Amino acid sequence: MKIIITLSEAMEKGIWQKVMEAFGLDQDHEVWEKEQFILTEEQAREFGLIR
Q1: Which of 7, 14, 39, 42 could form a disulfide with 3 if both were Cys (CB 3.0 to 4.6 A apart)?
Q2: Global pTM?
Q3: Which ranges in the chain belong to alpha helices (H)?
């Protein structure tokens, strides 16, 4: 299973820092609010999105 999350959703859920690290991003990267990131099931569990 794959989970898609946007920057704004990740910020709302308080996991944006974890998503940035998972995708090798830092504060200097320009990311759009609606940009989508595809997480694996394992990552989604680790980030607390699913059980």
Answers
A1: 39
A2: 0.86
A3: 7-13, 16-22, 41-46
DSSP state, residue 13 = H
Residues 18, 11: Cα–Cα separation, whole Å: 10
Cα distance between the two ends of the chain: 13
| Cβ contact 8:49 at 8 Å | no
Would you state the pLDDT for residue 21? 95
C-alpha atoms less than 13 angstroms from C-alpha of 17 in its C-beta half-sphere: 1
Provide the residue-wise pLDDT of the chain in tens; the chain has 51 residues. Answer: 999 999 999 999 999 999 999 999 998 999 999 999 999 999 999 999 999
Helix-then-strand count for the chain, H and E: 3, 2
